Predict the structure.
Amino acid sequence: MWGDLMNFLDLQLNISLKNSLNSLDKGNRMPHALIISGGSEDDRKALCDHLAAWAVCSSDGDRPCGDCKNCKNAFDRAHSDVYFAKGSGKTKIYKAEELRDIIRDASIKPNQADRKVFIFEECDKKLSEISQNILLKTLEEPPQDILFILTCENSKNLLETIRSRSVTLNLGDEKEVVGKSKELAEEILSSMLMSSEIELMRATYKLGDRFSALETLESIVIMLRDGLCTQSGFAPENNTEIAEKLCRKLTKAQFLELIEITNSAQLRINQNVSLELVGTWLCSQYRKTVW
Ligand SMILES: [Zn+2]
């Protein structure tokens, strides 16, 4: 249980983060990858150390107990099963070679604890797209006793494919679903679920100017990710009605595809493709995936 952890974790945790931590802890559901985003670098470090200790702690009661040898070594950043990626060069970039070494090591059993933890800090600056793709291959078929922890300022700087296979713990300051963009995002997703072509066209037609279109699409991505989270048994960042509706109708594969389609639409808008074309394209892709 996290009761104790919260006490000696000297951080102000927001409600959605508390929910995520609790659902992680419940029933020993250990994901293979956690992303810690938002907050300050020190806050991310503190949460990262606690999660690493939680993963290796040998207590049968509250974890991390802070007392066992595994915990103590983990908090000292000196545990043989908790590996901090080192990075190389001046910028401390995590290079492909290091990633490959880590992945090879991940398939070998842990030394003292029940699992191995690999930590990549400040990924938005240090984990390139190439390295993320190497990591992704392992996340697709992860060894049982592995936990990757990635910290970053903003999880949106990581590949969507990495994010959708991880549980994101947000310390705050990341954009939340709000206002008008939220309403329109809900409308688009609802009409997509209703399988009504006209309704869907009508809704995407309202995307408006580039700025609000990007905002709406971002809201759609957040809602889809929340739906995917709910379906995988983790607490979503925002508790929206639409996430539950999506969850009842869509498969995991459909969720992942819809997220990728929405990301491509954002990219097209950023590349100055006309909004009308993007809207029409989005409609047809959504239809193809869901109907
Ligand atoms: Zn312990």
Remarks:
- Residues 181 and 212 are 7 Å apart (CA to CA).
- The longest helix spans residues 210-231.
- The chain has 14 helices and five strands.
- The two ends are 42 Å apart (CA to CA).
